[in-house]
């Protein structure tokens, strides 16, 4: 369908965008890459009075490194992040997830901040942000605040961003030596939303797992950490038997939805398989990076 | 309703217009510029029929507003071959009987052209992945892949001859 009539502003700076948000509050939608928002408009699932197009706000694009954190501007396009050597070196889990987002033509326009602000629980980037405890920088009329990933995702397509706030940057911690990663997903076709996805990051020290992070996509209304399995893994030496225990624990801790793409029971089986695969690949990767 | 004056380059020519802000690039190309080679299938970014090249990257023109293309260089299916002739990719797809009803054709060809220009050595698996976002309802995928593979092969042979 054609898009509904809508007013349009294209601010050139983040503060102009914040002023517009402060004036129009939830009557306005922020248009970044548009790969989720424009379909929502076409299907009348969103009908804002005003679009605030931030594609011309240059200060919101770019990748930089400071003090062990990689900061990604909210308007940074997914293909740019995908081609970034900085991200490949410092945030390998993000680098592994980026090529799985949609299709090439989607990543030409789609943005890192847009996907994370849209907060589809089946999408790749929310699971990565949750696994790595990314930090979300939002700017409102009274200044900036930083929201940890655990508090960012509140529900299906819902974040803790206030109507007068703009997501300006997302910060990911740089992976240290001994940290290995894996992004796994099962989808009907390449590029479709995953029935289940899993972001895995494992840190080894002296041959034992000192830190394990597992975050699922597609099993709940938010990206979900498998905390039970993470605790079970901590301090133990990697083995096929241990991965199997972690997989059973992770699958029994989730309560995934049933829909036409797969039943809850099937999703639990897929989740267990992904935990085994994810841990195997992440541990191999960690041993290479030591 | 907000109308916005824009100037952009389409298939090498400077074009201007005053689309409503809500008008997608796809509708602007078809309705305002009469470039109806770009097809609209689903109009919400699922089928890939409306794929065009904007500043060197394949994008879905139904998921981009016309106003956002201001200042950009756009190539549509009409701009892929010289003067109404078929380009090498189009010829290879013709020779491979790649298409049946033709509805998905412009999106498939434009997506494949953008992909091959970045990945001239692509193998079958990479081509399948690159075209995975384009839906053919005749389900004639095999002959489409064959056509793109043939184009890649001919282009490699051509450049091998040039360097020999």
Give the helices and strands, then pairings.
The complex is a heterodimer of chains A (290) and B (164).
Chain A: E1 7-9, H1 14-24, E2 28-31, H2 37-42, E3 50-53, E4 63-66, E5 69-73, H3 78-82, H4 85-90, H5 92-97, H6 104-109, H7 112-118, H8 124-131, E6 135-140, E7 143-148, H9 149-152, E8 153-155, E9 158-159, E10 166-173, E11 179-186, E12 196-205, E13 208-217, E14 224-225, H10 227-233, H11 240-253, H12 264-288
Parallel strand pairs in A: 1-3, 2-3
Antiparallel strand pairs in A: 4-5, 5-10, 6-7, 6-10, 8-9, 11-12, 12-13, 13-14
Helix pairs in contact in A: 10-11, 11-12
Chain B: E1 6-10, E2 13-17, H1 25-32, E3 51-54, E4 57-60, E5 73-75, H2 88-95, H3 105-118, H4 124-130, H5 141-163
Parallel strand pairs in B: 1-5
Antiparallel strand pairs in B: 1-2, 3-4, 3-5
Written account of the structure:
- The complex is a heterodimer of chains A (290) and B (164).
- In chain A, 36% of the residues lie in helices and 26% in strands.
- With 290 residues, chain A is an alpha+beta fold.
- Chain A has 3 domains: 7-53, Uridine Diphospho-n-acetylenolpyruvylglucosamine Reductase, domain 2 (2-Layer Sandwich); 58-173, Uridine Diphospho-n-acetylenolpyruvylglucosamine Reductase, domain 3 (2-Layer Sandwich), CATH 3.30.465; 179-288, CO dehydrogenase flavoprotein, C-terminal domain (Enolase-like, domain 1, 2-Layer Sandwich), CATH 3.30.390.
- A 5-stranded antiparallel β-sheet of chain A has the order 4-5-10-6-7. Chain A has a 4-stranded antiparallel β-sheet with strand order 11-12-13-14.
- In chain A, a hairpin with a 2-residue loop joins strand 6 (135-140) and strand 7.
- In chain A, helix 10 (227-233) runs antiparallel to helix 11.
- Chain B is an alpha+beta fold and 164 residues long.
- Chain B folds into 2 domains: 6-79, Ubiquitin-like (UB roll), CATH 3.10.20.30; 82-163, [2Fe-2S]-binding domain (DNA polymerase, domain 1, Orthogonal Bundle), CATH 1.10.150.
- Helices cover 37% and strands 13% of the residues of chain B.
- Chain B contains 5 helices and 5 strands; from the N terminus they run ββαβββαααα.
- Chain B has helices at 25-32, 88-95, 105-118, 124-130, 141-163; strands spanning 6-10, 13-17, 51-54, 57-60, 73-75.
- In chain B, strands 2-1-5-3-4 form a 5-stranded mixed β-sheet, with helices on one face.
- Chain B is globular, with a radius of gyration of 16 Å.
- At the A-B interface, helix 2 and helix 6 of A face strand 4, helix 3 and helix 4 of B.
């Amino acid at each position: 369908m054609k898009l509904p009539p809508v007013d349009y502003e294209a601010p050139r700076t983040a503060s102009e965008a914040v002023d517009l948000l402060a004036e129009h509050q939830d009557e306005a939608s922020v248009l970044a890459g548009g790969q989720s928002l424009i379909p929502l408009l076409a299907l009348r699932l969103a009908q804002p009075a005003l679009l605030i197009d931030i594609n011309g706000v240059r200060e919101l694009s770019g990748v930089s490194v400071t003090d062990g954190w990689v900061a990604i501007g909210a308007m940074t396009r997914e293909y740019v992040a995908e081609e970034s050597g900085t991200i490949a070196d410092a945030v390998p889990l993000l680098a592994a997830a980026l090529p799985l987002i949609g299709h090439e033509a989607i990543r030409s326009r789609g943005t890192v901040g847009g996907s994370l602000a849209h907060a589809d629980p089946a999408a790749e980037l929310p699971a990565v942000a949750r696994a790595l405890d990314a930090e979300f920088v939002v700017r409102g009329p009274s200044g900036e605040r930083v929201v940890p990933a655990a508090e960012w995702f509140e529900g299906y397509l819902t974040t803790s961003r206030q109507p007068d706030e703009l997501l300006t940057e997302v910060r990911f911690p740089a992976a240290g030596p001994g940290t290995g990663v894996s992004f796994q997903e099962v989808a009907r076709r390449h590029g479709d939303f995953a029935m289940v996805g899993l972001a895995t990051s494992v840190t080894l020290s002296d041959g034992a797992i000192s830190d394990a992070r597992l975050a699922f996509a597609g099993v709940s209304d938010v990206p979900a950490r498998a905390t039970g399995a993470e605790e079970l893994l901590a301090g133990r030496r990697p083995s096929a038997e241990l991965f199997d225990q972690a997989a059973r624990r992770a699958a029994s801790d989730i309560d995934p939805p049933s829909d036409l793409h797969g039943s809850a029971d099937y999703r639990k089986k897929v989740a267990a398989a992904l935990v085994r695969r994810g841990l195997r690949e992440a541990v191999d990767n960690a041993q290479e990076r030591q | 309703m907000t109308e916005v004056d824009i100037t952009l380059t389409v298939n090498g020519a400077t074009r201007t217009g005053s689309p409503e802000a809500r008008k997608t690039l796809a509708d602007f190309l078809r309705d305002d510029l009469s470039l109806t080679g770009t097809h609209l299938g689903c109009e919400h970014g699922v089928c890939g029929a409306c794929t065009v090249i904007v500043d060197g990257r394949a994008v879905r023109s139904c998921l981009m507003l016309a106003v956002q293309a201001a200042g950009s260089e756009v190539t549509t299916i009409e701009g892929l071959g010289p003067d109404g002739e078929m380009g090498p990719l189009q010829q290879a797809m013709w020779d491979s009987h790649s298409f049946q009803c033709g509805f998905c054709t412009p999106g498939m060809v434009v997506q494949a052209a953008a992909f091959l220009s970045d990945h001239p050595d692509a193998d079958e698996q990479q081509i399948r992945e690159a075209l995975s976002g384009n839906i053919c309802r005749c389900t004639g995928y095999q002959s489409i892949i064959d056509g793109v593979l043939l184009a890649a092969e001919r282009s490699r042979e051509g450049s091998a001859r040039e360097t020999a």
